[in-house]
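Support case: adenosine-5'-diphosphate complex. Customer-provided input:
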Amino acid sequence: RGGGRRMWRIAVRRDGTLPRHRLNHVRDILRRSASSQQGSGNDGAAQRLAKWWRGQAQSHDETGDGTEGNSAHDAVVAANGASAVQYPRVLAVPLQRRPLLPGILLPVNVADAAIAEEIQALRSQGRPYVGAFLLKENIEEGNKTMEQAEEDMHEIGCFAQVHAAVADGKGGTQVLLMGHRRLKRTGVGSKNPLVVDVEHLKDHSYDASDDVIKATVMEVVSTIKDLLQTSPLYREQLQYFAQHSGGFHDASKLADLGAALTSAKDTELQEVLEQMDVPERLNRTLLLLKKELELSKLQIDIGKKVEEKISGDQRRYFLMEQLKNIKKELGIEKDEKSAVVEKFRERVKEKGDLVPKEAAETIEEEINKLQALDPSSSEFNVTRNYLDWLTGLPWGVTTKEVFDIEHARKTLDEDHYGMDDVKERILEFIAVGKLSGSTHGKILLLSGPPGVGKTSIGKSIAKALNRKYYRFSVGGLGDVAELKGHRRTYVGAMPGKLVQCFKSTQSCNPLVLIDEIDKLGRGHSGDPASALLEILDPEQNATFMDHYLDVPMDLSKVLFVCTANMLETIPGPLYDRMENIRLSGYIAEEKFQIARRYLDPQARDAAGLRPEEAGLTDSAIRVLIDDYAREAGVRNLKKLLERVYRKLALKLVQVEGKELEQARKEGSAAPNPEGAVVQAKHMVTETDLEEYVGPPVFAADRLYEEPPTGVITGLAWTSMGGSVLYIEAGVLEQGEGKGGIRSLTGQLGEVMRESASIAHSCARSVLSKIQPDNRFFSESALHIHVPAGATPKDGPSAGITIATALLSLAMEKPAKKGIAMTGELSLTGRVLPIGGIKEKAIAAKRAKIKEIILPEGNRRDWKELPQEVKDGLDAHFVKVYDEVFEACFGNPAQIKWQEQEEKASVV
Ligand code: ADP
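Agent response - structure generated as follows:
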């Protein structure tokens, strides 16, 4: 102090550093003292200190130790030896907020220049002690900075040591006060600055060993601890206190500290200050602390709630992100995009070199594109779908084709009865495949009436060749996109059937069955026929381009099998490329065998019945075939059998459910028929049939048991197979010059109308030869009708039939019984060959016809027919109409002669 220099004692940590809060504090002091002492010349110490401090600050920053608390010596403390005797009179420092309590450090802003000056003077004199008094509540804010009268202050204050006093540069001074003991104003020493006489107060004496006090002390301490947990704000005060008060045992100091820690109102704190009774003060403090604790808990609660409110969604988002990252890190789950990309890459890798270059390039491009897209965008989805298709196709994967004739024969026989010619054709086909190594470029066409097994034999062929099977129908198909796919730009775009087929069979050489190719729709957008041609044509289909896929696909390994009911409506260019295999329908015996061997067991199985429980007798099946299901195929027969078994099942379950169950159990547990009650088998006989399937349907085949005069039985061939049809001729009107066909009914097509006209002319010339006097044709207006008018009929093959019907009418002579005919007629009376011989023969047999007249040109077809079809049928082959006439009515010469005889006898 000799040189007028100030002395600071700075306690440092053992490691020679200062905690940050102290550093800041010192920095403040230094800055202020430097500025207030500018030019005084004796600031060497301050500068040295500043230099030292800079080093401290640096090392502090280096260690980065910003925590407070562990240090043992961490305060700037001035020597404290002021006694009450030395200070009967002190400078009165007014406190605007919060009273100063003993043992507490309090920074105070001294606005009054006189007081500040005095403080500086006291400090330089080495007597830095003042009295700190709280200003009374009612002093208005504005007046507080004015010169203070003593009445404005509380009477009780605190004797305080000035730890630091730094001008704040705005005319005020920052003073750091350390409270020591209580003071009471007793009088005024001098004014401006106000100096007061004081009495240094002592606590009332109390018994420190009292249990209640001890307990209260403990409670205060634990409350302080709780408070610290909720808020670290008070830690500094507390540490300081702990170091300088010698612990928490002193009830008086503890009470002061506790109160100072709270944010209680000034008056409440002042009350604590004024309370000289220690136990009472302790109680007050405890109360304040408890309040504070509640408050701080409340504050935390409020803080939490607000935080929750704000961050509910955000938190979720962050957590999800975190979760994703964690999963990614652990390899549990990739994020969507990379998982998708990986999946596609994996698929491509699996297929390896088999993927054609073009496809591989497209896939790579699309994957790169995908990676750049936002997973929630619609384009991402479009690209992903596209990639899904691209990578999901069986590029280059084929099943090993089997060209084993024996195996094929067995497979075909297993599933189908008869059809020998069809099977033979298929075996030939396989043999060729065996020799040439492939069946490439072949398109099979299975044509025939419904229900003859076209679809199911297609499936068998796939099995025989060990190819995957895929079927789709083009019946009524009008949209080319079904075959060739949509462009990807369409919403909900899909690839075409062929791509779908590849994906679902996972094979590049499946057997594709295209059903109902004869019923291909007319395209409303594009032409389905030409799209189909593109698919089927071996010249083009190695680089088939689906609109959606947009990458060439090789269809050349696919074996195409088409089905059709009739050939006429198949688009020409398509038909040209096909190899037609005809399935003509079954005769009764074949149907019986199919039913007995395949359909009956299948239907029984489907109904859940066992062979030992139920069945149909042979004769019942025959009746079903003859009277209920006369179609060319067996689909109706199959349905009927299924109906029989369903009814049977219901009956058994209703009537004998229990016994049936029992019998089944015994049967399967111990197959011991001897002694055991054997369940009676339920056989459906022909007489039961009505009960199961109703009365026989009336068949058009049976319109006439014996056709009368003017009606002739013809044979027709439709897409439903062969059938028997009747041609009826009648006279509308007779008279001079009225001859001709007036009316033609029965849904006849153009060709058939022409046939009728030709037949009329031909019949007329025949009649004129036989009965030159018969003026029937020139004088009769005729009506020709073909019953079953609901079905359209067309074709030339009814020519001879119409002519015969007209002649029968003209001669008033019925044709021979049990005869039917088919053949085209020319104007000169020649009979031309027609199609569908087998179907017609089968139909004739079904209708119990014994004799048929066929064109000579069809003799070869007849020869090729299986013997069982020909059996029981007497065929006449005719070249000219006269032969037909003879077959129906007998020798024309005889007719003439007979008639003359008759006439003569009449005469
Ligand atoms: P299509 O395709 O010619 O209309 P389907 O193939 O659908 O006829 O045949 C109808 C049913 O008749 C199928 O259940 C089929 O198994 C059966 N079927 C047809 N022909 C035979 C046959 N020759 N042997 C055994 N079952 C046959």
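The chain has six domains: 89-138+148-200, 211-300, 350-392, 405-582, 588-660+679-693, 711-900.

Case will auto-close in a few days if no follow-up is received.
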